Amino acid sequence: MSEKVLMKGNEAIAEGAILAGCRHFFGYPITPQNEIPEYMSRRMPEVGGVFLQAESEVAGGNMVYGAACAGARVMTTSSSPGISLMQEAISYMAGAELPCVLVNIVRGGPGLGGIQGAQSDYFQATKGGGHGDYRLIVLAPSSVQELMDLTIEAFDLADIYRNPVMILGDAILGQMMEPVVLRERSKINLPPKTWATIGAKGRPKNIISSLRLDPGELEKHNLALQEKYKRITDEQVRYTTYMASDAETLLVAYGTSARVAQAAIDMARERGLKAGLFRPVSLWPFPYDDLKTIALGSRRVLTVEMSHGQMIEDVRLAILGGRPIHFYCRTGGMTPTPREVLNEIERIVEEGI
Amino acid sequence: MRQVFGRPKSLTDAPTHYCPGCSHGIIHRLIAEVIDELDVRENTVGIAPVGCGVLAYDYFDCDFVEASHGRAPAVATGIKRTVPDSVVFCYQGDGDLASIGAAEIIHAATRGEKITVVFVNNATYGMTGGQMAPTTLLGQKTTTSPRGRDAGSAGYPIRVAELLSSLSGVAYISRVSVTSPANVIKAKRALKEAFKVQINKKGFSLVEFLSTCPINWGMSPLEAMKWVDEKMSVYYPLGDYTQVPEVSR
Ligand SMILES: Cc1ncc(C[n+]2csc(CCOP(=O)(O)OP(=O)(O)O)c2C)c(N)n1
Ligand code: SF4
């Protein structure tokens, strides 16, 4: 299985989930990710799986919670306003340590916003979103191939760490078509789901709950969660670089912005400007240490985002004043062009900042 | 010596936290007896609500999940669709089911989810201290309707059994109370029917229990039972409510 097929980003996510053994999908329609539930409604019956259109994202998220309790490989997908409604279930799943895969094909906000691609849900995805001290593993693909590969891997990560994993895409990635290689999933040993609530036959009952009325117990539970998050931080930091080793101007961008940044870097290099890219792939855990090392090898940093500066807060935390950090963005569903980013590179180089 | 009365296998020996005279405890026992008699404890999964029943998982000796406020039917859907041969029941209060979870219960019912819902209607929000519920009777005083529920501003109490029985996915709905031995026997019969309907994969089933909350009603346990008979059962008539014609199902 290594043929190349032309696929839309949203379809690559859906087929990736099927390849990963996901057999339960719950979701509610919202643009720009409707291709995913539509694909699943067709595909799930073919593989003996379950597709169910929920009455809302609130319900959909809680159906995911239920299926995860029963040990299913389960996914839901949505876009920004729908993900806001799902925060209740997400917080409960993080609290009850349930594995699941969530996909946010981000559109411009706030509120109903628009339907074009944006990156304005970074805070929501990486800094909480719902209530309580919890973390999601957040992965940011920047190509259709990566949408599929990271979706496949997300299911394993969710099972390994018993934690929800979010794929943070955007409308552009979801809608674009690129050739994709369908890869066989590499088999890894996953912990058995002995905790699942499927009936207590032959064992003591299992209880899944995020409730700890005793503050001491709840603190202990939170400490255990933090230990897990530390382990994930040690083991799952991911990023890529492009022409970063000799870069004087280091661009930091993820997802669609990273594609634009890379095109701008090529244009800059043609003009003799040494620009390079640091692309975080795991937004949580964020690659603080590696970004710091690479940024200190450059003269200046330029963060490019499709939001008014969300990831830049992590970039600042990584570099801690070690280098000047500049910012360029387009928002509301507007995408920066390579030309605009190049202009910004040229400006900060000329001004010597 | 033959034992003629004891704790059902499906109940643990944990002392419950329910107030004196509260019928949550009686309802728990009936559920456990039905699970035992149908011999399904080992493939039953219960869903606890947010409300006074939140700790139900401590009292039942079967797999249990604690859901967020009102979402038990959605959680039950996820479980049942993953393990279709399991027996899944939700335990929900009136705030949980008829207010914040109104959408989830209606859609689980209309989809004909093969789950059983135990709906405990005590006309108030017990756990949070006796605020007005969607099922609070007109004129009933609560901490958020201190002058009595006024239809002009708070609208009318919801009759859940009647409302849901208009949906085609529903296979069985009954409203019962536990105010007398005769009513308890009827209640258990209804509950058993509801579980059987699920086991036989006929569709959605729900039993609405008219239940007491003496603490928040400001009554003695006996007065509370009387209030169920004289007030609640008038607005919420007991009986079966499944009137969906076969043809529309
Ligand atoms: C989202 C959310 N909103 C509000 C609450 C607070 N709360 C806890 S229990 C409850 C009402 C429970 O009343 P009911 O469902 O009637 O059950 P009872 O306690 O009477 O058995 C409320 C409002 C909550 N836990 N979560
Ligand atoms: S507050 Fe009311 S419903 Fe809750 S346990 Fe006490 S009597 Fe029962």
Helices, strands, pairings?
The complex is a heterodimer of chains A (353) and B (249).
Chain A: E1 4-8, H1 9-19, E2 24-27, H2 35-46, E3 50-53, H3 57-69, E4 74-78, H4 80-85, H5 87-96, E5 100-106, H6 122-126, E6 137-139, H7 144-161, E7 164-170, H8 171-175, E8 177-181, E9 207-208, H9 215-235, E10 239-242, E11 249-252, H10 255-270, E12 275-280, E13 282-284, H11 288-296, E14 300-305, H12 311-319, E15 325-329, H13 338-350
Chain B: H1 24-38, E1 44-48, H2 56-59, E2 63-66, H3 72-82, E3 87-93, H4 94-100, H5 102-110, E4 116-121, H6 151-154, H7 160-164, E5 170-177, H8 181-199, E6 204-210, H9 214-217, H10 221-235, E7 239-240
Parallel strand pairs in B: 1-2, 1-3, 3-4, 4-6, 5-6
Antiparallel strand pairs in B: 5-7
Helix pairs in contact in B: 1-8, 4-5
The structure holds thiamine diphosphate (TPP) and iron/sulfur cluster.
Describe the protein in words:
The complex is a heterodimer of chains A (353) and B (249). Chain A is of the alpha/beta class and 353 residues long. Helices cover 42% and strands 20% of the residues of chain A. In chain A, the strands form 3 sheets. Chain A has a 7-stranded mixed sheet with strand order 3-2-4-5-7-6-13, sandwiched between helices. The longest helix of chain A has 21 residues, at 215-235. With 249 residues, chain B is of the alpha/beta class. Chain B has a single domain, classed as Thiamin diphosphate (ThDP)-binding fold, Pyr/PP domains (Rossmann fold). Chain B has a 7-stranded mixed sheet with strand order 2-1-3-4-6-5-7, sandwiched between helices. Chain B is globular, with a radius of gyration of 17 Å. The A-B interface holds A 24, 26, 50, 52, 54-56, 58-60, 62-72, 74, 88-89, 92, 96, 197-202, 205-211 and B 41-45, 47-48, 54-55, 57, 60-68, 71, 74-83, 86-87, 103-104, 106-107. β9 (207-208) of chain A pairs parallel with β2 of chain B. Residues 50-53, 69, 93-96, 120, 122, 124-128, 133 of chain B line the site of thiamine diphosphate.
